[in-house]
Amino acid sequence: MKRVLLPLALALLTCVVALAQTAPDPALLTAINQIPALDNHTHVPKVLAAGEKDDDYDALPCSGFLEPSDDPAQARPENPLFLQAWKELYGYRYDDKQPEHMQQLRQAREQVQREQGDNFPAWVLDKLNIRYMLANRVAMGRGLNPPRFLWVPFDDALMVPLNNQEMANTPDRKFFYQREAGLLQRYLRDSGLRALPATLDEYVARLVTPTLARQKRAGAVAVKFEAAYLRSLNFGESMPAQAAQIYAKYAGGGVPSRAENETVQNVLFRAIAREAGRLGLAVHIHTGAGCGGYFQVSGSNPALLDSVLNDPTLRRTNFVLVHGGSGPFPKVTAFLLSKPNVWADFSEQDWMIPARELGGVLRDWLSWYPEKVLFGTDLFPGSSPEYDWDSIGYMVAANGRQGLALALTGMVQDGQITRERALELARMVLIGNAQKLYGLK
Ligand SMILES: [Zn+2]
After folding, report:
1. Which residues are CB-contacts of 121 (< 8 A; sequence separation ≥ 6)?
2. pLDDT tens across 41-58, in order?
3. Hey, what domains does the chain have and what are their CATH numbers?
4. Model-level pTM?
5. CA of 379 to the centre of ligand 1 (A)
6. Whose CA, among 26, 70, 343, 359, lies 20 to 30 Å from 414?
7. What is the rounded distance in angstroms from the CA atom of residue 177 to the CA atom of residue 181?
8. Which parts of 256-305 fold into alpha helices (H)?
9. pLDDT single digits (tens) 148-201
10. Which residue in 314, 420, 437 sits closest to 369, CA to CA?
11. In angstroms, what is the span from residue 421 Cα to ligand 1's centroid?
12. Whole-angstrom Cα distance, residue 232 to residue 272?
């Protein structure tokens, strides 16, 4: 009898352990869902008047402008978390997507938008249990007010002043460099300049410094670089004398080579990052997978930032590796968090990969430098009312919290941390680390 029972007991035990590993501790997940979060990275849209368009939600928008490329499976409409989002946000009562039910959903959403008006974005934040949302936008807009919405402007345009013909080596980059040229014109106008100053020193003094000061005054908490969409993140060596010569030669016109352009960009990136640090603005930088069918993933490895992250003159600038090297490079990110001025968020990762895989990434990061890990969604305007930023945000935030719960459950079960510490880490990741980084109460 005993001989029969023992294997049975062992088999049962194995089942229990296996179950425990596939689901997060329910009490821990409940606690995690109740913690109000700071979303470190989003492209939240402003409230629009009828017929109005929002062109400011990204300096380099993908959808609608590039050759179409497929979303990863996790982010597609068939993800069941979208049904859950509609239920939580708009009282959707169905487990299907019958056209008449979807029609009801659109009506329910329109009604909330009418009732809430300019408060609609803040209403969504309450539903998602997000206290602060960093809005990575060219400019803020209707309904996006501090302290709930905090601005992160784009500053790549300041880094690419010269003719970029030789840099635009893919169809996507042609479009992206055109966008940057447009934004640079806007920054020049805002600084009272009609053309590029004649020297690089003057360019920094009359355009870079005043633009960052204006962004700070307007409430920015960080500035953002999407450089990996434009070039490699390897900012090489800083060669100020050569850069000044090249700039002076081409400021009035002409087409610099790729190498010449990069020499100027490498110096300007550092000048912008140094000034941001002086003003107490963090520098956000896209790392890892990016959108568009021509995205050059080899240039988005955060390890390429070595020369910048190890630059002693930039140690007063705090860098955030936005997306934490999503896709191929989270492991590299884990080590880079060892540097005193480097943080990472897992925005986009929670949009792109299911909670189980995300839990693996987070467990690794939390085992290295838990005080450097930040929650984020990367939510953005969708292509239809049912799959717009509110439902995308719900899906991603729910998946992110689930991944965090899985990571912490595993760490508690293995005796790596106590339950109490797990809750403390959850609060740090969801809001506490970011509050410290940005100096928020
Ligand atoms: Zn983004």
Report:
1. 44, 46, 47, 143, 144, 148, 149
2. 999 999 999 899 999 999
3. 26-39+154-382+398-438 (3.20.20.140)
4. 0.94
5. 7
6. 343
7. 6
8. 258-279
9. 999 999 999 999 999 999 999 999 999 999 999 999 999 999 999 999 999 999
10. 437
11. 31
12. 17
